[in-house]
């Protein structure tokens, strides 16, 4: 498979533009704009966390652009609004560094932290490069999102990957997505939030098997 990855607004080398708050719809349109710029009419989508939320939106609203979709360590709804607002305020006033260790505690199990400190540090450095305004803008998209009803009409062939020890988007969220989309396949890995890193081999095997299947 040929893979295209991109930096979501406010992260990596992507700016937020003039927007101080984003929506899942805006992020979905961004992803489609990347495909358009690459001259790709239809593609498999694989999104983790916010990427999964973005992929849900695309599969619901623009199914003609999607071959298959993998929704990984994600959720269609993440309350409460107040908790997201508090995180936005903290990041914009104290910087991304003020939340990094708490975030890493949710993203990896204690065992992975102990066994793979260099790999954890790589993600730490990635987070530290995020723009506070960009991070907060993406938090706003999650704060305002509720796709619980919308995903019930997704007809795209779907794989759901969850982490059995994911405190951010716990197993119940993965089960909700799989039960809401007709024919969706659910795979649970012994991992926290970044299962694609913590259980890389199993994650990649599940994804390749899914994409290679006829249906």
Task: Summarize this entry quickly.
The protein is of the alpha/beta class and 215 residues long. Helices cover 50% and strands 12% of the residues.
Descriptive overview:
The chain has 215 residues and is of the alpha/beta class. It is 50% helix and 12% strand. It has ten helices and four strands; from the N terminus they run αβαβαααααβαβαα. The chain has helices at 24-37, 50-61, 81-94, 97-107, 110-115, 117-128, 132-143, 171-180, 195-198, 200-212, and strands spanning 43-48, 66-72, 157-163, 185-189. Strand 1 (43-48), helix 2 and strand 2 form a beta-alpha-beta unit. The protein is globular and about 50 Å long. The two termini are 17 Å apart. The model has no long low-confidence stretch (mean pLDDT 96).
Counted by DSSP, the helix tally is 10
Shape summary: globular
Portion of residues within helices: 40-55%
By secondary-structure content and strand pairing, the structural class works out as alpha/beta
Question: Quaternary state, please?
Answer: single chain
The biggest sheet, with number of strands, parallel, antiparallel or mixed sense and barrel status, is: 4 strands, parallel
Given as residue ranges, the uncertain stretches (5+ residues, pLDDT < 50) are none
State the strand order across the main sheet: 1-2-3-4
Number of strands: 4
- Report the portion of residues in β strands: 5-15%
Cα(first) to Cα(last) distance is 17 Å
Helix-strand string: HEHEHHHHHEHEHH
Q: Radius of gyration from the CA trace?
A: 17 Å
Mean pLDDT: 96
């Amino acid at each position: 498979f040929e893979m295209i990855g991109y930096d979501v607004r406010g992260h990596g080398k992507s700016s937020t533009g003039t927007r101080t708050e984003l929506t899942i719809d805006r992020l979905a349109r961004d992803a489609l704009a990347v495909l358009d710029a690459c001259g790709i009419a239809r593609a498999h989508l694989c999104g983790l966390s916010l990427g999964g939320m973005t992929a849900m939106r695309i599969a619901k609203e623009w199914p003609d652009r999607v071959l298959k979709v993998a929704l990984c360590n994600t959720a269609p709804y993440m309350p409460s609004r107040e908790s997201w607002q508090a995180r936005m305020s903290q990041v914009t006033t104290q910087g991304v560094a003020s939340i990094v260790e708490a975030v890493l505690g949710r993203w990896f199990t204690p065992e992975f932290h102990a066994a793979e400190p260099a790999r954890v540090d790589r993600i730490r450095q990635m987070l530290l490069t995020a723009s506070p305004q960009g991070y907060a803008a993406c938090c706003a998209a999650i704060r305002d999102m509720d796709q619980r009803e919308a995903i019930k009409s997704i007809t795209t062939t779907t794989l759901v990957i969850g982490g059995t020890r994911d405190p951010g988007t716990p197993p119940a969220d993965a089960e909700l997505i799989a039960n809401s989309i007709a024919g969706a396949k659910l795979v649970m890995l012994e991992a926290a939030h970044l299962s694609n890193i913590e259980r890389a081999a199993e994650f990649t095997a599940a994804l390749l098997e899914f994409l290679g299947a006829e249906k």
